[in-house]
Amino acid sequence: MKNVYLSQTNYLHGPENKNMYLPYAVGCLWAYASKDKYISDNYTLKEILVLREDVKKVVDRMKNPYIVGFSCYVWNEEYQLELSKQVKKRFPSCLIIFGGPQVPDEPKQYLKDNTHIDICIRGEGEEPFKQILLGKELTSIKGVHTKSFQTGHSERIEDLDDIPSPYTNGVFDKLISIHNDIDWHVMLESNRGCPHRCTFCDWGALTFSKIKKYSMDRIKKDIDWAAGYGSEYLLFADANFGIFKDRDEEITDYVVELKNKIGQPKMFSASWTKNSNQSVLNMAEKLYNSDLLRSLTFAVQSMDEAVLAAIKRKNMKVNDLDYFLQECNKKQIPYYTELILGLPEETYDSWVDSICKLLNAGQHSAIETHFLQILRNSALNKEGRDLKVAKTKTYFDGSENIDEYQETVEIVVGTETMNFDEFVECIVFNWLVVNFHSYGWTQLVSRYLVKRGDVSYKSFYKNLLNHVSESTFLKNEMNLIKSEARHYFTKGYFKNLNIPAQRLIYSSQFNMHKNSDKVWDELNIFFSQYQLDKDLLRLQKSYIRDLKSQYPYKLKFDFNWFEYIINDIELINKPFIMEFDVMDEVKTKSEYRENLYYKKRQSWGNTIIK
Ligand code: B12
Ligand SMILES: C[S@@+](CC[C@H](N)C(=O)[O-])C[C@H]1O[C@@H](n2cnc3c(N)ncnc32)[C@H](O)[C@@H]1O
Ligand code: SF4
After folding, report:
1. Ligand 3 atom nearest 239 alpha carbon
2. Best exposed site among 64, 131, 177, 464 by fewest CB in 10 Å?
3. 372 lines ligand 2 (CB under 6 A)
4. CATH no. for residue 143?
């Protein structure tokens, strides 16, 4: 028997750093290849490597590897290159194969720079991988790239059901039993491909491609497997979940039914379709009512037409967004909006306007900003735009615990329309709105003032920015974010913070909760310019979860402020008793901090007002 090793290493992530997705891509490769009798008779899968262990230790325990396949993503490339180099050194006749979205589309130079790699595969890997194991002539296999020849992209798999499920076929059984300390998350596909072609994105070589689907029967069996295993998290890797209304509704109904019957899976997650629709809302509502939904996404990337044209993306109409956000607010479905900072044509003003347009549309839940990464095979990387790029470390969840094989990400920190200083100011404005509005500290007051027609969100938050710049505690927090951002995006790492970069703007929230008296003192000075009723300020304050308070508690108000702000109900002057409660109790400060971050989309830091 010839020994095969497959490597799909990743960081452990999550609140306790013990979560990881089962290595689905290499699982598919093996499930597909090993259904062939010649392969199952002649090859054995010795090990699937997932942890970023010391490379020498891994090579030491390898036994006569015949083929090692490496699955290469932006978050594991450095490690995979180092491990593969050491494998080749120790076992020179072993065939080293690289695949995955981080392998360049034209890997000629890559193969020259990394002479230890024998083959790079572009496109779906199942068929070329199988052909290689069958010993077919390499030049006849589509998708194969070597130092001497290349055969382009692999051909699309017509019927995805030809790939046996790695879950129900037991590919991961051994891995799960070896690593029983990891809480494995399960990732499924119901289809492959994305019909759109946003230039910043690279949907694993299947961007701008026809969508191919798995059968419903296959999908349901995989869901059963995930539920049986007891997966905390079930994630659909489709590019646009909800795009096929009937099918995707059937999938969510099935998950909901299982959860209601056996309590599993616990959570459902998906990349929701670019342009939402009523049926997405129905799915989200059902999932939410069964405590399965983490949040619904309304990814817009930008609200500016020039930016959207530059990235070849067409968002849904603002009116539709407005409607969906209002519906979610009404039904209290957790949702968030994704933006990308650093896109071509974006300016400081258009960034501020984008954020304020979202508030105007009713986005009072969570706004999440991604920094624009240059994905190697994206159109953006090939367009030849004049972009200022920073190579940064500790970007991914879990990567803050630095190891020897630091992964880097290329992030756009300046464009033709935005210089570095403006980029940093965009981060600051984003920080301001997220920390004060989305996390709730000024949300009720600003919504009240906007509703009364006294201010616009833009004037309110620009005013707040000026106030913070002249305050004491809040100014320190802002300056900390600003100086850490400058350091990170010039030197590539933080000066003092030990967090993954994606957490930067959220890192103030715990400090604000811990020092809430100072925050309220400084905010009250700010609020005083608007001549607000003390009763409303009391409500605003009670909306923020307080470390020192015992929940639930009741308070009497002279007006129905909350209903007036949230719904379209007249403001009435009569006594209202409101109860304030919190989502769940925590015992330690670190748990409190983690919840503020991980449950930000569910407004964990706010009180539940009844
Ligand atoms: C699920 C997913 C996640 C999950 C889990 C990822 C994980 N740990 O496994 C979550 C939500 C955590 C995630 C996060 C991110 N993700 Co993501 N994610 C995906 C997604 C949707 C599916 C990946 C997948 O398994 N697909 C199904 C398998 C079957 O397809 P595949 O991976 O492409 O593998 C096939 C081929 O590539 C090839 N192949 C792969 N490996 C190998 C190996 C060999 C030997 C061979 C022969 C062939 C081969 O064959 C496979 C089967 O056909 C992809 C998009 C997509 N659909 O591909 C993005 C994608 C992988 N993610 C991407 C990015 C950028 C991110 C983030 C960095 C985004 C961010 N927030 O900044 C984060 C960071 C992740 C981290 N580690 O911290 C990019 C990666 C680009 C790149 N060059 O690596 C992708 C392509 C999409 C995108 N444009 O956003 N992600
Ligand atoms: C790839 S989309 C998938 C969901 C859906 N198709 C959509 O477009 O809304 C998921 C998210 O990945 C993030 N993303 C993709 N490419 C990125 C890049 N180059 N830099 C930063 N974020 C990126 C964006 O925030 C995007 O909203
Ligand atoms: S961003 Fe979404 S819609 Fe656009 S190409 Fe990527 S996956 Fe498709």
Report:
1. 7
2. 177
3. yes
4. 3.40.50.2300
